[in-house]
Amino acid sequence: MIKRHRPNITKKKVEEALRYFDNTYSDEELMFLESERQDWCSKYEIDTKAQLELVLQLCSVKLQINDEVRKGNNPKDLIKTYQDLMASLNVQPRQNTIGGTDSAQTFGTLIQKYEETRPLPEIDPELQDVDKIGKYITVFFLGHLCKMLGIKNRFSGMYEEYMRKYKVERKDIADDEDTEDVFEKVFGNSIE
After folding, report:
1. pTM here?
2. For residue 60, what are the CA distances in angstroms to 31, 37, 57, 165?
3. Dist. CA 165–CA 7, nearest whole Å
4. For residues 52 and 60, what is the distance between their CA atoms, to the nearest angstrom?
5. How far apart are CA 130 and CA 124, in angstroms?
6. Directed axis angle between helix 49-71 and helix 76-89, to 10°?
7. Using CA of residue 181, residue 186, residue 191, residue 192, what is the dihedral sign?
8. CB 157: neighbour CB atoms within 10 A?
9. Please, which residues have CB within 8 angstroms of residue 156's CB and are 6 or more apart in sequence?
10. How far apart are CA 67 and CA 44, in angstroms?
11. Secondary structure string (H, E, C) spanning 46-58
12. What are the tens digits of pLDDT across the range 21-66?
């Protein structure tokens, strides 16, 4: 037989559940209801009071279904009620696959929606471009491209300055006075 996990019932958790459900339930039932509520709210956007009410009713009906199954009764009517509530909330599986809230929208539309409804907070100055990726793109892409195309601008200048520390400057020994000495050190004195 499968052991069922009993929720850890604390006064704080019961008080949290009582914010949403009335006190006609036992503490164990309140823990189940609260767990279900949190699960629904984490998986779907519950923005309005009407949606929250539907979620609370879904939780209560699921508890009733579980009780009927435990007693050995057929919860057919409760399951129908549960499915109707899901339809009212627009969270039935078929509704999510056909044209759910986000699946039919383009990526750009979704970004616009999220930026308007839940914009990102401003980034802390200490966290902005910590890996200097912006500089690398500017220097190694734009700068190198400008250098290849012969365009003289600030990007090609940044590229040349950055690459200068990795360049090897070749010394021209033809201008040196003691080139004969270098030749003799490399190849020796004798011509024979």
Report:
1. 0.47
2. 12, 10, 5, 70
3. 64
4. 12
5. 11
6. 160
7. positive
8. 13
9. 143, 146, 147
10. 26
11. CCCHHHHHHHHHH
12. 888 888 888 888 888 988 888 888 888 899 999 999 999 999 999 9
Residue position matching structure tokens 């909330």: 89
Residue type, 21: F
Q: For residue 81, what are its two tokens?
A: 């009620």
What secondary structure, in 3-state letters, does the chain show?
CCCCCCCCCCHHHHHHHHCCCCCCCCHHHHHHHHHHHHHHHHHCCCCCHHHHHHHHHHHHHHHHHHHHHHHCCCCHHHHHHHHHHHHHHCCCHHHHHHHCCCCCCCHHHHHHHHHHHCCCCCCCHHHCCCCCHHHHHHHHHHHHHHHHHCCCCHHHHHHHHHHHCCCCCCCCHHHCCCHHHHHHHHHCCCCC
What the block records as the tokens of 172 is: 């021209």
Other beta carbons within 10 Å of 159: 21
Report the greatest alpha carbon distance in the chain.
114
Query: Which residues are within 8 A (CB) of 86 and not within 5 positions of it... i.e. 6 or more apart?
Result: 58, 92
Q: What's the gap between Cα 30 and its chain centre?
A: 32
* Residue 11: both structure tokens together: 């006064």
Report the C-alpha gap between 63 and 85 in whole angstroms.
Answer: 14
CA–CA dist 65, 83 (Å, integer)? 12
Give the pLDDT confidence of 114-172 residue by residue, as tens digits. 888 877 777 777 777 777 888 888 899 999 999 999 999 999 999 999 999 888 877 76
